[in-house]
Amino acid sequence: MTDIEFDTEGVKKKFMFVNSKPPYGTIYALEVLEMILISAAFEQHAVIAFIDDGVYQIKKGHNTKATGMKNFSPTYGVVEMEKEDADEDEDIDMVWRIVVEKESMEARGLTEDDFVVDVEVLDSAEMAELMAEQEVVLAG
Amino acid sequence: MNKLHTVNKSPFDRSALATCLRLAKSGSSVLLIEDGVYAALAGTAKSGMIEDRKGDLKFYVLGADLDARGLSEKPMIDGVETVDYGGFVDLVCEHDSVHSWL
Questions:
Q1: Contacts of B87 in chain A (CB under 8 A)
Q2: Per-residue pLDDT reduced to its tens digit, A91-136
Q3: Nearest to residue B91, comparing CAs of B81, B101, B79, B76?
Q4: Residue-level pLDDT at B85
Q5: At what angle do helices A28-41 and A75-88 cross, to 10 degrees?
Q6: pLDDT attached to residue A1
Q7: C-alpha to C-alpha distances, B67 to A22, A29, A64, B21, B48, nearest whole angstrom
Q8: Comparing C-alpha atoms, which of A107, A54, A25, A55 is closest to residue B41?
Q9: How many CB pairs under 8 A join A and B?
């Protein structure tokens, strides 16, 4: 196998990952989650946003046993750990935020207590502001 | 002709449920499966879709799909009956035909 070199030295961008699909009907949620973890490996800044049906991805208590699907919601705990490392470790130059749009959450009968990770709840105007600040927005 | 309608898309994202409810005849049954189960939740912006038709349609929701999505403990709309996979098979057998709304 040939070695692949990544010429990413000194490259640091503000990424936003926009999760807008429910967790299990399509592959979008899982693919975005993978991108988020890759961005951690490259020490990029990241905002992990949940809007529309994406808010259901981080609903507590997923139990996929009877459906025979893989429950990937524990992986959001890894995202939260990455964020905590970024917050606490001075050697890691990485700012991570996990944000939920208030309007999407409320329309779906959810509250902050329903989520598997700690989130910041932003209203649409605040979310729009944050989106506008990003250098790269990847949606799924 | 009594028909079983299955809906597998979220009512927030797609119009599958809306179209199903518009075209389903009185007396038929609607089974919510996969991402369709989000429509069964009480107190959401879309709860009214099912509440408005409870009188003339029978509603069911697949428990395994609620469970997968962490929704088993959430309040469901009154009158929506939760069924397991065996119940799904029973519903198919009890009806003359099945229409999948995708």
A1: none
A2: 999 999 999 999 999 999 999 999 999 999 999 999 999 999 999 9
A3: B81
A4: 98
A5: 30
A6: 67
A7: 14, 18, 7, 25, 22
A8: A107
A9: 71
